[in-house]
Amino acid sequence: MATLEVTAPRLSRELYATPAAVSTLDREAIAQGQQRARLDESLVRVPGVFLQNRDNFAQGQRISIRGFGARAPFGVRGITIMVDGIPYTLPDGQAQLDAIDLDSAERIEVIRGPSSVLYGNAAGGVIDVTTADGRDNPGTSVRVEAGSDGYRKASLQTGGAQGDWSHHVSLSALNVDGYREQSSTEKYLLNAKLRRELGSDRALTAIINLLDNPRSEDPGALNAREVAAGRDQAAPNSLALDAGQNVDQQLLGLQYEDLSAGPGELYLKGFISQRDFEQQLPYVGDSRIGYQRDYLGASAEYHHEITLGSLPLSYITGVDVARQDDERFRNDVNDQGVVGQQLAEETQTATSAGVFAQGDLALTEQVTLSLGARFDSVELEVDDSYLSDGDQSGDRTFNEWSGSAGLSYRYRPQHQAYVNTGTAFETPTFSEFANPAGGGFNPLVEPQKAWNREVGLRGYIEPLAMDYDLALFSVRVRDELVPYEEENGGRTFYQNAGDTDRDGIELALGWQLATQWRLDSALTLARYEFDQFATPSERFDGNRIPGLPEQTWVNQLTWEGLDERFATLETQYVGDMVADNANETEVDSYWLVNLRVGDGWQLGGDTRLNTYVGVRNLLDEEHYANVRLNGSYGRFYEPAPGRSVYGGLEVSF
């Protein structure tokens, strides 16, 4: 196998010297026959990762890694999202995925397990996306797609290099009517890079990302009776209130690299972003919300290799700083959808600063010791401007240490065993700090802490042309944050749930059966449960954590013929789960079968034509795209589409 290097751990290493569960996806895995509209299309083949909610763009995809991130009804929690070195995860710990451009994505790396040592406010892992910069993929391509439920997408890619300059521009337009009522989406995305080489060792890169999402409707969750009456209907309040959101976001990044900064390498990065957001939630009351956000940050990293005694040491030191300012409002809405009086107006400010260091010490040619530490200071502040109900201003500051230790044993050139342990933390986000007793911070909510332990094996069995990646993990979490809804079906609030346990096995296999045939498989067997969790009226000790299947199994059988002819048959098994803390509502397991086929032709010169067709849920299995946790009035279910078809045509030159 060719040497594979991973960079998401920030300290770049060869994969077989990395003491952590890391999965990498190349452009073919991201793009081949895919719509490239949602992350689940490619991440489904990563064990330990589970995604829900691919069909409700207003709520966004819910991503969990080893159970972290599942608590959020919208957005991403507990997982660091990086795109081209820019953190899409905010200082308060939440992230949105709507501005990630999968059309230009060249590589996705996923770290499963403790990541706070190098990234701060995250306990579950890291998803790191790298987009094209024009140096390796010159040329232009135009792609159009159409499919079931009013799916339409068009994209343009162009890039190249000339002298010291290189560039890549990606533009896409997405329109979806949706399988359910009140679920249409209109979205436009621009992602561009401009790179200038400043000699053989230095370069400057500018990044522009623009998102215009004028409409994403929210069909809401149904109860079992409504599901039986019609899976494609929207919740009554979603229709009556015209639930949905609109987003407008701009981001500018600037990055400098110097590969000969003294004896080491220096990387400087900075960015600034603005986001305007407004949403109508699907309930009567204080359900019209919005904000204007300013988000900026910077980082500096220094990489160096020295000799400690007679032992080689590679290390990285760095600092991250970021700040978000949200001007937020909330209004009352009556049952006719009329927006009434303002109920809240406040400025939410989150500031984070972290310093970190990590080093790899080669004890022998086969054994490497990795140690890391990080200190973070996160300050959350609310400045209340709506004073008719009193001044709810306040602030909270969290100072947290994180550490990790790992040992890698490369017992053969293409086989490795490793063990690691690490601590991590998650602060409550501003929305999770909401106070059910009134405004300001909920004084009863605290950060959750995690202690991760992991043992792994990975390698490549040359006679079988098979690569394998096996990881056993055990995580103990203190003060787990869990959501609950008001009894009247209104807002979602959060509480600390005592302790939880997460234990499991993750296995990924890739087997080149023959020249044209390959099988990829990803299996997760886990147990996610409350160890100690009690409310004034109930105890949930020993119950399963809601919203998480404990078994998933994905298989992809791919045939590749001449030129770009291919066919991929994919099966997905998702085990049963529970929807509430009491484990009284069970959601059945299901199997999905997906199929993708495509072909390509050389039309003359550098011009190529590629076509592809995909069928999702080939067997028309009834299942749920999302499960709302602890939903009131039994509204847990967001039904997924049945059999759906899409097709695309791409011309490149």
TrEMBL record:
MF terms from GO for this chain are: siderophore uptake transmembrane transporter activity
Q: What UniProt keywords are attached to this protein's entry?
A: Cell outer membrane, Ion transport, Iron, Iron transport, Membrane, Receptor, Signal, TonB box, Transmembrane, Transmembrane beta strand, Transport
DNA repair recorded as keyword: no
Q: What is its main location?
A: membrane
One cellular component term (GO) for this entry is:
cell outer membrane
Q: Which domain of life is it from?
A: Bacteria
Q: Which residues form the TonB-dependent receptor plug domain?
A: 16-126
* Matches recorded under Pfam families: Plug (PF07715), TonB_dep_Rec_b-barrel (PF00593)
Quote the SUPFAM superfamilies the UniProt record gives: Porins
Topology with respect to the bilayer: Multi-pass membrane protein
Places the protein is found = Cell outer membrane
Q: Where is the TonB-dependent receptor-like beta-barrel domain?
A: 211-618
Q: Which PANTHER family match?
A: FERRICHROME IRON RECEPTOR-RELATED, FERRICHROME OUTER MEMBRANE TRANSPORTER_PHAGE RECEPTOR
Family per record: Belongs to the TonB-dependent receptor family.
What's this protein's name? TonB-dependent receptor
